[in-house]
Amino acid sequence: xxxxxxxxxxxxxxxxxxxxxxxxxxxxxxxxxxxxxxxxxxxxxxxxxxxxxxxxxxxxxxxxxxxxxxxxxxxxxxxxxxxxxxxxxxxxxxxxxxxxxxxxxxxxxxxxxxxxxxxxxxxxxxxxxxxxxxxxxxxxxxxxxxxxxxxxxxxxxxxxxxxxxxxxxxxxxxxxxxxxxxxxxxxxxxxxxxxxxxxxxxxxxxxxxxxxxxxxxxxxxxxxxxxxxx
Length: 230
Description:
Layout: E1 2-7, H1 8-14, E2 17-22, H2 27-36, E3 41-44, H3 48-57, E4 62-67, E5 70-71, H4 81-84, E6 93-97, H5 101-107, E7 111-117, H6 122-132, E8 136-141, H7 151-164, H8 172-177, H9 197-203, E9 211-217, E10 223-229
Parallel strand pairs: 1-8, 2-7, 2-8, 3-6, 4-6
Antiparallel strand pairs: 3-10, 4-5, 9-10
Helix pairs in contact: 1-5, 6-7
């Protein structure tokens, strides 16, 4: 099995084989928490007008996402797992759009199988990949705003690769170091309203969920996330 680690939108475009689009802080952590709170469907889009259109199509649909890390005007939720775990999504459709994660999904046009990636279900992702046993695995670390290398996304990529190969499971020391690097923004007072400290901890609860989210292209060009129990 050939495992490649790529970055940003360019990496998503180059990705082949079984592809994992990784966005730990916070898009695909949010997706996992939304499903764990009962969401029946998550649709990812990179266009705000399309997000509002989709909300009008699906009864009881909710909008979740961000631009510049903050909740988008007219949206029900931001890109914060802290918000998500306080809501019962049972039977509801969530329409999600973010700067990095959802753009990565929509850019991965050469992927044969497409998954979302986060630390909260990284172990399940590794198990799924072992089961499929593809020739090529592309792990795409989307980075901060899909422009700057993000330590948490690179760490997640290495964690998944390590687990696929049967390596150690304990990355706790490396995760703790994120508080002083890419995760420090969650502890800055000026960000507390849209990026609270609890988001850091919720996004770094490694292997909290034993399911993967497989991304399937829809006829309307958007992406639907399918929850698959492992």
